[in-house]
Amino acid sequence: MTTVSRRAFFGLTAASAALAANARVSATDSRAQTLSSLTGGAQPITAQEHAERIAKLQSLMQQRKIAALLVEAGSSLEYFTGIRWRRSERTTAALIPAESGVVVVTPFFEEPSIRELLKISADVRTWNEDESPFDLIAKALHDRPVTAGPLAVEDTTRFFIIDRVTKLSGAGREIVSGEDLVNACRMVKSSAELALMQAANNVTLAALKQVHGRIEVGMSSPDIMKMMVTATEALGGKHEFSLVLLNEASAYPHGTEKPQTVRKGSVVLVDTSCSVHGYQSDFSRTWVFGEPSSRQREVWDTVKRGQEIALETAKIGVPVGAVDRAVRAYYEGKGWSKDYGLPGTSHRTGHGIGMDVHEPPNLMRADMTPLEAGMCFSDEPGIYIPGEFGIRMEEGVS
Predict the structure, then answer these.
(1) Any domain includes 30
(2) pLDDT digit string (tens) for 148-185?
(3) What Å distances lie between residue 195 and 4, 121, 258, 314, CA to CA?
(4) Are residues 177 and 194 in the same domain?
(5) What's the pTM?
């Protein structure tokens, strides 16, 4: 396994309290205007690759004697069909049979938009406001050439869709989870997917570098987040999220609503993501504003070594849970809490990443998925000390 990126910041910046926070951020916005896009050469997934994904899925369904897979709007619908669509009370979904063509069901007034996004050959069937999309899905299932076998459902599909389709499909139709089918397609990335993820990584790392050097005393978490958004967009990425945790708030992996501002000796933790043509980055950086204390430096060094242990353990064929166990053994040997206790590492060592910022497999000790070439995951074994601070660095690894 090789890292997509293994850079870390432990920034020591000079404090300046001469300007108000809004003036500082405005100045940073003007600097960001000088940044140029890093994604001009990024190529979206081709129609041919989408067709190959459908072919692989259908082959898996035939092997497992599955009649079809039902996928509603979301990243898996985009993965297989190219349709990037929001979820709402109006159902848009695809039925992908084990044999023959794909059927897409969508509201009548959305058909032009759906056809514009569609990257595969498909039969688009529409429903009006006083009609049922579930009738169309059930009918599509019955009129496909292969009607025997269970219907698999993508695992994030909402219950009301499953419930209505189940009732209309008849008592003889078994409904099963499609999680294994989808994971078998999505967990291992193609060269085109890896290229888009690398582009997203490049943007996020450049944005972090831009922001890192411009933080000043008195800035708040929203001030820093605004700088991240501005830099990310100027560099050609679609900003997905930025979590900025200062001081004691950094001891909460996903933050607190208690306001925090930058001061001398502040721990600054930034967790941020962008996407390029639907594929995401996910990086965290933690540094100290000013001179770090010996305790801050010790914890930072421990977490950095934890990241390295994760990389050293991650070999082809090794269960992902073994990566988590190796890091925990090192931390526990240095006196941090056992299992997922605090102070220590209260969350998994990492997670899969791709079109979603969190995907299977999960680098936690109970996950026995063997690592394969082309899998992508985060490496982020943070340490959190309630009432003091937390340290998390996060890399993208493939």
Answers:
(1) no
(2) 899 999 999 999 999 999 999 877 789 999 999 999 99
(3) 10, 25, 39, 21
(4) no
(5) 0.90
